[in-house]
Amino acid sequence: GSAASLQGAANAGLGSRIGIGNAVLINGSFVLAASAVLWISGGARLTLWQSGVPWSHYAGGMCGFVIIVAAAYVFPKTGGAAAIGFMVLGQGLMALAIDHWGLLGMPRIGLSWTRLAGLGLLCGGVALLRW
Q1: Which among 5, 35, 87, 107 is placed 20 to 30 Å from 65, CA to CA?
Q2: What is the pLDDT of residues 7-31, one digit of tens each?
């Protein structure tokens, strides 16, 4: 959680000085380099693209890109607290959908009044952060 807030603020600050595209490129380059070190230190097996793995399971990289760009764009417009609040609300909404329909191979956990009440509390929290 702390890293997401710091990343959003750092990318927004860097983006305001060198452009969001440049800031995201630098961020992505660091992520790629650090990922390569992690991959090599783990044995560097060439099993990245295995048959039988649904294409949707590889969508995490695109989601990471969207998160980085959105945070860099939204942080200076709404402030850090509201930007992170919107991110948590979006995570909650998507997590409920993933659970309810069992998306991406996850176990199905149906909607309930208590889960919807939790979503309502997240909405209230974002409203308070924006107020």
Answers
A1: 107
A2: 888 888 899 999 989 998 998 899 9
**Local structure of 53: helix, strand or coil:** coil
Give the chain's end-to-end CA distance (angstroms, integer). 22
Is 31 buried (19+), middle (13-18) or exposed (0-12) by CB count in 10 A?
Answer: middle
Whether residue 79 contacts residue 106, with contact meaning beta carbons closer than 8 Å, is answered with no
> Under the phi-then-psi rule, with left for phi > 0, alpha for psi from -120 to 50, and beta for the rest, what region is 109?
beta
Question: Where are the alpha helices (H) located in 42-112, listed in sequence order?
Answer: 60-78, 80-101
Reduce the secondary structure of 27-40 to three states and give it as a string: HHHHHHHHHHHHHH
Task: Give the sign of the dihedral formed by CA 110, CA 115, CA 119, CA 120.
Answer: positive
Residue with tokens 């659970």: 99
